[in-house]
Fold:
Amino acid sequence: MSLGIFDISDTGIQVSVGDNPVILSPGYAVLDGDNLLLGDEAIRNARLLPRWTNNRFWDQLNLDPLANGSERIRHHADLAFAHLDELWHDVKNQVDEVILSVPGSYDKQKLGLLLGMTKECGIPVRGVVDAATAAVSEQQPYRCVLHLDVQLHRIVLTELERGIQLRRIENTTVTEIGLYTLMDRWAHTIAQQFIHTNRFDPMHQAESEQVLFDHLAKWIENCNANSSNTFELPLGDITHSVSISGDQLLKACTEIYPQIVQQLRTRTAGEERVQLCISHRFRGFPGLLDSLALLDNCDIVLLEQHAVSKGILKHLTDIRSEGDSLTHITTLPSDERTLSRPLSVVPAAATETMYATHILHGNRALPIDDALKLDSHFSDGVDVDEPQCTIYRRDRAVFLDNHSSAGTLINGEAVKVQTELKPGDEIQLGTEKLILISVENSHGS
Structure:
């Protein structure tokens, strides 16, 4: 018998036995008549039975009545209980105690419901730890540590402070757009490309739409944002394929990247270097790591998939509670002599020069190829007669020429005539805000 770890995330509950991951079950439920489908089985039917699909029960863990509830499933907590019970049934003969890791957004009410459900399921919980704290606990010793994660319905940033102990300071929801919305946008991007090139719409029938989504997550994770990617859709004896560029995928992210950059810039503005740990769930997000690597005083680590469970195993004696009393652990010891090196570090700006390649505005990502002539009425387009400023490329570098006294701000400061731009810079024209990002090699250099 050994330790069981339940890493609670609506993108997928990771269940490990000791250091061996055995289950990854997405937070989906489909009520098909009297048949309740959960996890992998549910997500494989989500597009076939959309009216009976729910993927918010871990994010909104509460006792509020469901609009389409039943005598068996009355609220989100009933769905979460059923999911937890099914996972426990699969491993209960292999473990004799369990540690839970939970998102930083879980308050006392959600924690109380979760622990009540584990007790009802008969799960012998011996500890509860904040997931972000566990995930970054084995990284290099920086005084300020940030952890960025994406869930199904939100992107969250956790701020931690390291001294003698690693202590969680704050958990912030950056945006309530999460992986579910982004996957939906990417799916529609692929569908539109199928229509354009093959005159075939995979969204026209639920069966082909389901197959598209079945293949989408793994495909996005392995995408190369710097080149075209071939998406294959196997339907019976026929496999349809289409080429998708990094720029096409980037459009799904244009609403969220400025919000991420703004949240991070406020926390990396000082002289002290900050460590930014990126969840493995961001793998394949086009342009994200390239752009974040240009933040001042920020060293970026892309965490491995099982960083949470490894952190728990390392600090098990500090997380495990004695007796029936459980403490929500948000602080762990920090011994600099035993900290391991990061598994994957994104090169800092000092080691490789990166240049801006796109402007993000609203839901648009504009490549900086030809000169972009802009004014404060951005909706008028990028080639106005009397521009407030012009953004253009010279070799690989990008510059802004200011033509107006109306006030053009870069990172909150007025620009007089000409300024070189770099990824992460924020341009403000009147009330309009633009963010410069880099999708490396998008110009084939």
In short: The two ends are 55 Å apart (CA to CA). The mean pLDDT is 87. The first helix runs from residue 40 to 43.
